[in-house]
Amino acid sequence: MPETSDNRGYWITWALLTLALGVLLAWVLFNAEDKSLYMPGPLSDGHHQLVDSCDSCHTDRFGGGEVLQEACVQCHGDVRVKPFDSHPRAKFTDPRNADRLEKIDAVHCVTCHTEHRPEITLKDGLTQPRDVCFHCHAEIGNDRPSHQGMEFDTCASAGCHNYHNNRALYTDFLLKHAEAPAHKERARLPGREFADVLDEILEYPRDHYPIQPLAGSDADAPQEHADNDQIHADWLASGHAKAGVNCSACHQPRDEKGELSAWTDKPGTEGCIACHGLEVKRFGEGKHGMRLAAKLSPMTPARARLPMKPDAAHSELTCNSCHGAHDYSTSYAAVDACLQCHNDDHSETYKDSPHARLWKAELAGTGKKNTGVSCASCHMPRIDFDVNDWMSRKLVDHNQSANLSPNSKMIRSACLHCHGLGFSIDALADQQLIENNFQGAPSVRVESIHLAIKDQERYLQELQRPGG
Amino acid sequence: MMKKQRTKQVTLGIAATLAITTVAVADIGEEKLITPKAMADALHLVMDSDRTVYTRKIVNRLVKKEKVIKASEHFEDDKALVLPAQMFRFGSELVAKRAEKKPDVNFTYSLQSLWPVNRQNAPKTQAEKDGLKYVAENKGKNYYTTETLGGQKYFTAVYADTGVAPVCVSCHNDHKDSPRRDFKLGDVMGGVVIRIPVEG
Q1: How far is CA A45 from the centre of its chain?
Q2: Per DSSP, which regions of B100-151 are E strands?
Q3: Which of A32, A264, A441, B165 has its CA 20 to 30 Å from the CA of residue A461?
């Protein structure tokens, strides 16, 4: 009898522990913000912000690889087509490439970008086999004699090729820019253009806020909010007041029927989206805004993997984090806002860099317009963005991750406005130069332009040969 | 009264005829009357005609005759016209993307050559190699066969691709990566390969 009683005790303890474990697991699954308990391994640098949003990628509990693929395409699909991608999916779905797919499954992102496997994850989230290029391009030495004798894994590591975005690295582009000097004679960044393209933003609420300057007496804030002189003065001096954007435009976003919502003292992105929808969308696609886009709490420096300033650890990243409110100083947003949080060598040395000297000169009025180089000039550049299949407009790209990883994607959108191609390629391959924020000349030399010239010379000789 | 009745009868007659015709058309549409060969021939006729129009009326006219714009492989960077071969390939990529979601109309096509500017467009499968050789050596004839790729059987048709305009010939003869530089107008420069999945 005592034995039975003891057993019952064990059973009860086991049942209670099992129940407690079950409750804990269920609570984590359905309620906890941090679901890392369920993760097979830590997330990569590109996705770690979404640690508490498993269903951002695992959209269907019963789905397999295709569900995950769909999730990749959902966020990254727009650049996985030509001309941004030199290896788009369409290249591999042709049945004639079935044998290649057996070696490298190039139609699924996870083939080279496996998640939750930090032990095999390299820079830029790569988990690809080192010989990935070899499987299709083993014969390159025959077509390009300059490539003979090269190791099978040097295509990308030498700084010459990028599997996806090769736009600044393809042979004819290298040749076209081969002779460009390190510094262009007339170095200019693209100027601001938003006011000029308002007509092209179809969703712009021009009916409610006609594009015409407002006076101080036009402010439509309710009386109880209208007594802050500083806010009033800031707004009046801003581009918003000059373009007819009244208080209600941001503080009382309209619904689909155009009806004003209730007044909000501190509007979030919903206050910006009516006029700056594309900027907000792109912000949500980068590391700053991807948590907000996934309907999570905003990103904070405390969550970042890059070095951040301790006193900014709990600042929340929304539009206003960089743009403030009411005065909307873009010069603050372009440098000071970044340096409030970022604390790595590259950021810390910016203020002593040649780029910063140009920026200060432009702000002081001694430098010419669009010659100053801020953090945003390179990391949130003004680009020609395809709004849809039929229209393109100049856009400050608020997805600051878009032209990184690998950094050669920055060459066209940033460097080439002021520098030659060879100098840019070399500078971006020089880790030390990046860390000291480009104080000095590149000490690395990437061979790509030299090789392209060699191949061009061979071609010209071939043409001169009899029968060539 | 009689007139009214007749009108009613005519209306009913027309309605019935329309209904029968609609049903009949739907039925015919579902019948498997078209052979893979006929389908491939029809597809090729459309592809070839569209590309010939683009090559002659757009590229050759604007580049060679009116000399107002360039055509370039790097058309975005050079602010130029898309090359006819690229126009053809972009079409084939769009078809591949759209057809993936419509298994009933699943087919693929590509432009290949025994002397390709881009090595990736050289023949790979035995059917492609045989077909391209056959259409180059037998002017005016097409090549038809079946092959199995990735576990799927395909009806594969190869059609000669001929240099129809001076721009075709000059571009291939002058291109840095071209393995052959003695093409003449009217020469077979490559072939269009169309694949249709078949049972078996």
Answers
A1: 12
A2: 108-112, 143-149
A3: B165
Residue type, B20: I
Parallel, antiparallel, or unpaired: how do β-strands B143-149 and A382-386 relate? Answer: unpaired
pLDDT, tens only, A278-323: 999 999 999 999 999 999 999 999 999 999 999 999 999 999 999 9
Peptide bond into A95 cis (omega under 30): no
| A212: CB partners within 8 A, 6+ apart | A243, A244
- pLDDT at res. B16: 60
pLDDT band at B1 (very low <50, low <70, confident <90, very high): very low
Q: What is the pTM of this model?
A: 0.85
Give the helix ranges, DSSP H, for chain B. Answer: 2-30, 36-53, 84-99, 126-137, 166-174
Distance CA A228, CA A219 (A): 12
Q: What angle do CA B7, B13, B17 make, to 5 degrees?
A: 150
- Which ipTM value was assigned to this complex? 0.74
Residue in chain A lying closest to B148 (CA): A95
Burial class, A5, CB count within 10 angstroms (exposed 0-12 / middle 13-18 / buried 19+): exposed
Please give the residue of chain A at the shortest CA–CA distance from B99: A93
Specify the amino acid at residue A283: F
**Dist CA B169 CA B163 (whole Å):** 6
> Which residue ranges of chain A lie beneath pLDDT 70?
1-5, 466-468
Q: Write the pLDDT tens digit of every residue in A126-162.
A: 888 778 888 888 888 888 888 888 888 888 777 889 8
Judged by a CB distance cut-off of 8 A, whether residue A42 touches chain B is no
- B76 vs A contacts (CB less than 8 Å): 83
Mutate to test the interface with B, among A96, A171, A460 (most CBs of B within 10 A): A96
Cβ atoms of B179 and B88 within 8 Å: the answer is no
Kindly state the tokens that stand for A165.
């975005």
Around Cβ A135, how many Cβ atoms within 10 Å?
15
Place of tokens 């600051």: A400
Q: How far apart are CA B175 and CA B73, in angstroms?
A: 10
The amino acid sitting at B115 is W
Nearest to B119 among A90, A99, A143 (CB): A143
Q: How many CA within 13 A on the CB side of residue B82? A: 11
Residues of B whose CB is below 8 A from A102: 150
- Residue among A96, A101, A136 at smallest CA distance from B126: A96
Tell which residue, A397, A206, A377, A137, has the closest CA to residue A286.
Answer: A397
Residue A195 burial by CB count (10 A; 0-12/13-18/19+): exposed, middle or buried?
exposed
Cβ atoms A277, A198 nearer than 8 A: no
Query: Which pLDDT score is estimated for B188?
Result: 96
Instruction: Characterize the bridge pairing of strands B188-197 and A382-386.
Output: unpaired
Give the tens place of pLDDT for each residue, B61-86: 999 899 999 999 999 999 999 999 99
User: Using alpha carbons only, what angle is made at residue A413 by residues A410 and A417, rounded to the nearest 5 degrees?
Assistant: 110
DSSP helix/strand/coil, A85:
coil
How many C-beta atoms lie closer than 10 Å to residue A300's C-beta? 18
Do residues A35 and A58 lie in contact, with contact meaning Cβ atoms separated by under 8 Å? no
Q: Which residue has the tokens 């840019």?
A: A424
Question: Which residue, A468, A450, A464, is CA-closest to A178?
Answer: A450
With an 8 Å Cβ cutoff, is A456 touching chain B?
yes
